[in-house]
Amino acid sequence: MSIYEKVLGDDFFRLHPMLQKRYSFEESKSFKASGTMKSIKGGPKWLYPIFKLGVHWKLLFPERGTAIPFTIKNEVLKGENNEEQVHWERIFHFDTKKRYFNALMSLDSNRSVIKDYLGEPALVYSDLAFDVSSDGALTIRSLNQRLILGKIELPLPKIFHGLATVTERYDEMKDVFQIQVSVRNPLVGHIFSYEGEFVQDA
Fold this sequence. Notes:
Layout: H1 3-8, H2 17-23, E1 30-42, H3 48-54, E2 65-78, E3 84-94, E4 97-100, E5 103-108, E6 113-118, E7 124-132, E8 138-149, E9 152-155, E10 163-171, E11 176-185, E12 189-200
Antiparallel strand pairs: 1-2, 1-12, 2-3, 3-4, 3-5, 5-6, 6-7, 7-8, 8-9, 8-10, 10-11, 11-12
Pfam family, one: DUF4166
Protein name: DUF4166 domain-containing protein
Organism: Sporosarcina oncorhynchi
């Protein structure tokens, strides 16, 4: 049983069948898909240096645009104490440049949240809450966040949070997965977003 099945419990079976299949990760298999981001948008221009710096952590990137080729790979790993982890490799292809938005997730069963370590090496930590909508879509929202400095994790005040909302659904008419991601800050507002479609690789 995957960490996503565990955190959602019975609600997992309310997901669209294709999303159930997508999030039922098996240790010996990975999920690979490719598609196109309809648009990738950023926030105020003064954030550009931060996004440019984020390239070094495979977390953020300054490029923006439309019709951006996209690939994703999810792979089950084993962490300390045999903890099940899911590695997320998301690559956005800007001509000859590859830009990443990577993460490593695991389950906190005591608090019923997914632990999300963003970047490589990890730079930001976030608790994630998972919900299923009435149409079988999956919504993921970030909660408490911490800044990671080596082995030190510092709680971030809410005014510095990058609050993400992710919605993933399956379009039966087009036979594609659809994704919408929006990251906002309580003071700045919109800081990063993308939306698009992808299909599982054969």
